[in-house]
Amino acid sequence: MSGARVDVAGTSVSTEHYVGGHRIGSPSGFVDRSPIDWSWELAEVARGDADTAAAAVGAAEAAFPGWAALSVAERAGHLHRLADVIDANVDDIARVECLDMGMMLRSLRARVIARGAANLRNYADLAVEHEERVWSSKGTRNRVIHHPAGPAVVITPWNAPWMLATWKLAPALAAGNPVILKPAEWSPLSASLLADMAEEAGLPAGVLNVVQGFGEEVGAALVADPRVRRISFTGSPEAARSIGVAAARNIVPFTAELGGKGPLIVLDDADVDAAARKAAGQYDDAGQVCLAGTRLLVDASVEERFLEAFHRYTDEHVLGDPRDEATTVGPLIHPDHLERVHGFVERARDAGDRIVRGGRPAEVGGSGDGLWYEPTLVVPASNEQEIVQHEVFGPVLTVQTFEDESEAIALANSTPYGLSGIVYTSSRERAERVGAAVRAGTVWVNTFLVRDLTAPFGGMGISGIGREGGRYALEFHADLQTLQILEEPPS
């Protein structure tokens, strides 16, 4: 763990790549700043390039035979040891992630960082418990074998770097594939901590590699390398299209989770107060959550009651430093993202949409140059408005009304996205009927963000391709072989 290191919130963090069990630098770097105070330079981080990508893939390729040759139980043991190291360092990881990304420190400590250890244990145990399919057919004995596929590239977004890195690399490692992890350049530090912890846990050299830098530079080189046999990406549809082209050239399986524009449907028999509270909760993490229900679709008969309660709960939000226990809404990640979010709202205003609350950057702590944005609610002039049809990824919600169930479903399914949805109703029959009719990879009824790690996760439409979670992810990271043997060979 030698090389260039910086102190971040009392924790030593390497600013270099981690390749083949060693820290390596780059000729140039990039500055990583904290969204809590944009003048706060956390680190100058090594900026990977094509040579860095080639070295990382080479290290993973060299580690592949040994890692693949281990039994599933032996690989699971490594993942459990890494999970134990994570559990022992939750507070350090949480403080670093808070400064780097701006998520609530209390949330990171209470659930998000521990979810990383849970991801590793979950996939380790699923891999051990997996039973090969064996059956007889037409005089033959058949067996499906899961062969490790080879080096896997994992590219994660800036908004949930720790949780998504562990979520993606856990099934790859459990399946026998070494990983090259490329974190987003706006929040790279927790991935560097993960590399240190992998070394502490005794993960063999080259099994986990971490490469920092920009997507168009090191990321593009990674996904274009023909030695890579799996690619898992979370980010924007635009980036996914480029990655998909590179994957197609090398005939490499590719999964992508690409954000959403989720509906939150409030039917006329719903617990309106509970629905309004959950709707106001969509401003959590400054709205930088792909699964958020950002389109509030409310039965016209309960609109007045819903909005009264919604505004009351939204008024309870406190914008501030995410390290402060009183804060409920932290800053946006980057000045460019603040500009993007405000641009959506300004264009909505110009297009005739009605801004009923918020709609501007917020002053926090007496400063006018922070990255906070007011919780914003927009009544669109029509369902075709940009603010309805495109992902804002900030604390900006829209509200529309409907007259009946069929109109609610039509509105819910009227965008090109299909990642998630939320339905509020007191009827089990309507929960089943409306929930199943919403075109989304995950639909919650009367709740939100409850995750079973064995369930499939992914999107429809431009929200992505493929599924993560449980055996679905393990099968993605395997080459499946059917071995068919004649039961009674001819004499």
Tell me what the structure shows.
This protein is an alpha/beta fold and 491 residues long. The chain folds into two domains: 5-258 and 459-482, Aldehyde Dehydrogenase, Chain A, domain 1 (3-Layer(aba) Sandwich); 262-445, Aldehyde Dehydrogenase, Chain A, domain 2. It is built from 15 helices and 22 strands. It has helices at residues 50-69, 72-87, 90-101, 105-129, 161-175, 189-200, 215-224, 237-249, 272-280, 303-315, 335-350, 386-389, 405-412, 428-437, 470-476; strands spanning 5-8, 11-14, 17-19, 22-24, 29-34, 37-46, 134-137, 140-148, 152-155, 179-182, 208-210, 230-234, 254-257, 262-266, 293-299, 354-357, 376-379, 396-402, 420-424, 442-445, 464-465, 478-486. Strand 14 (262-266), helix 9 (272-280) and strand 15 form a beta-alpha-beta unit. The model has no long low-confidence stretch (mean pLDDT 96).
CATH-defined architecture of the largest domain: 3-Layer(aba) Sandwich
Strand content bin: 15-25%
Helix proportion of residues, in percent?
25-40%
Total beta-strand segments: 22
Average pLDDT metric: 96
Radius of gyration: 23 Å
Strand-pairing-aware structural class: alpha/beta
For the record, what CATH class of the largest domain applies? Alpha Beta
Report how far the terminal alpha carbons are from each other: 63 Å
CATH superfamily of the largest domain: Aldehyde Dehydrogenase, Chain A, domain 1
Shape: globular
- Unreliable stretches: none
Largest β-sheet summary? 7 strands, mixed
Q: Any idea of the CATH topology of the largest domain?
A: Aldehyde Dehydrogenase, Chain A, domain 1
- In total, how many domains does the architecture comprise? 2
Give the strand line-up of the largest sheet. 16-17-18-15-14-19-20
Task: List the total number of helices.
Answer: 15
